[in-house]
Amino acid sequence: MAALVARVFKGKAFQTVLRRNFLIILRNLSSSQLYVENFGDPSLTLKKKMYELPSSLGPKEVIVQMIMAPINPSDVNMMEGTYFVQPPLPAVMGNEGVGKVAKVGDEVRGLNVGDIIIPSDTAWGTWQTFKITSEEDVIKLPADISLLSAATISVNPCTAYRMLKDYVDLKPGDVILQNGANSGVGVSVIQLAREWNIRTINIVRDRPDFEKLKLKHSLTKLGADIVVTEEFVRTPQMKDLLKTYTSKPKLAFNCVGGQSATELIRHLGQRGVMVTYGGMSKRPVMAPTGALIFKEVVLCGYWNTSWNRRHKNDINRLTMLSDLCNLIKSSKFEPPPCEFYSLDDYKSAIEKATEGFKGGKVVFKME
Amino acid sequence: MAALVARVFKGKAFQTVLRRNFLIILRNLSSSQLYVENFGDPSLTLKKKMYELPSSLGPKEVIVQMIMAPINPSDVNMMEGTYFVQPPLPAVMGNEGVGKVAKVGDEVRGLNVGDIIIPSDTAWGTWQTFKITSEEDVIKLPADISLLSAATISVNPCTAYRMLKDYVDLKPGDVILQNGANSGVGVSVIQLAREWNIRTINIVRDRPDFEKLKLKHSLTKLGADIVVTEEFVRTPQMKDLLKTYTSKPKLAFNCVGGQSATELIRHLGQRGVMVTYGGMSKRPVMAPTGALIFKEVVLCGYWNTSWNRRHKNDINRLTMLSDLCNLIKSSKFEPPPCEFYSLDDYKSAIEKATEGFKGGKVVFKME
Known about the structure:
Radius of gyration of chain A: 21 Å
Strand content of chain A: 15-25%
Oligomer: homodimer
Number of strands of chain A: 17
Number of helices of chain A: 14
Largest sheet of chain A: 7 strands, mixed
């Protein structure tokens, strides 16, 4: 996998000469790790420890020095024990993040010291300073990528990308709907849709007027066509607003559930598709029978982990990352607003990450 | 369309010589019709009248003498005004039925006097004794088909056929689930699945013990692998029962909604599909977010009218009808248990058709 990625991302063969550069400084290396021994309330179960890395490295292994790693909702669910897949415990937490290759084993062919990598799969354990991993378990990104964008590329932007690509054959000018539009996935959807000439109707939770205007402004600036509140969606004005488009929405993204999801279904066009990728309201998706039978809507779900596992050695995944990296490098795809915490300050970070209406994504910064 | 069907169903060219046989007896012909002027409670709005057929027939028209026509739930919804498509009023009611061609226009090429036909589309108006229609608006069936089977072929058996064929690539030995298993569609599913070596787990409403055993026996006799009640599905024994199969259900059919639909979703396997074709409980379909995201279930609906309209001139429709007719002729596909009423006795027929736990399908018999 890494070898293939290296080719796609202009792997620089000459870097092999640098391979053993860090041998000395990596001796007796310790990793500072955030881990859980038991599932439960993350504010109680997440702990920090030091871990002494083995001094010898397997021939196909690499040492990665982590740079940044966000706290996503899936991390919180994993700590709570409510995520669909769980690592064996104790486990270092963190599903997403960016690191730099600090040392490579003798038989590693696709990675070099200094390369920027992201984990290939879920539950890799990004919340630590150093990790020994297999060459196969990471994906190399271009050297000149923004590190914050790289740290946050593999969950939200990839979810948005796949949901826009894989369910409906969208044409320029087509309209899509989404709730939770200011979520990490939501803002990724807005930016990708803007680049691909897809119009977005974005629904956010009702909130104080000042905050509402600020949020509306920030989403519009990213490329949102329309930003409305959940409250507005239930008024007759929503129908009038949709009538200003020549065609009805073909696709909707739901991360809320309950009444909010039902409203998305209600405003979809004939044979529209609603993709669920989250359930913030903790309420089930409710679909009127008539919408399923007569409007022939299709309801399905997107799970990034599953997609990645099915496409581990797949050119589609590399194409997607390449597309996203190119958009990032040309400043057409911004990372989400973030707040940075050190690993030492993990208790504040978890507290911030689990509160409602937070200002941005919480990101651990290791160096 | 009729011409194509005639070829598929061994159209007998020599029949053209019989064409004008009924000219005399059809003069001054009256049709006895059940119609509504306004939508509402069918027991109040359905009325009967006599209609004098025009004496001249258009060159591409035919006169059909209706033989039998059932009352389906969609007929009741159409009279109530709650169906997704509504005919302009006043309208003769009846979406399904079988008739015999009594006279053909000069330019009709695919139909002959005596041919057995069914309507091609919804809202054709089968609850009457004679109807002038276009050659294009009917489909010819084989002459030797059972008339009761023909009268009830186009809604329930076709719905079952398409739901089994079009959503999941089922292999012999695969398991499917359905609620409302004793419905018209349900018993069609059981019989087709038996022929195609698909195993069916059939869920019926809780009911008195004697009736339950009788129903279980009748469905098992048709080919049902397992018959259980809604109550049983919610017990841990249901999981044990499913474990006796090597693979989990890939496909589920829902005509109930509410908790019953949620249970179907719960027992589906990874990436399973639930097709909704009815909503007897009048409750929406509720899908847990986790089932959509992590189990990647797909929820969709089947609407026979829409499928037929999309496949009006399509070989798939003729293949389906041909397959069903062959099964009927070889006694491998039974018509549902029926109770017969004359058009004159329409008030009792409607009353019977709209009561719960009825013994069989209510069918108007015209001659």
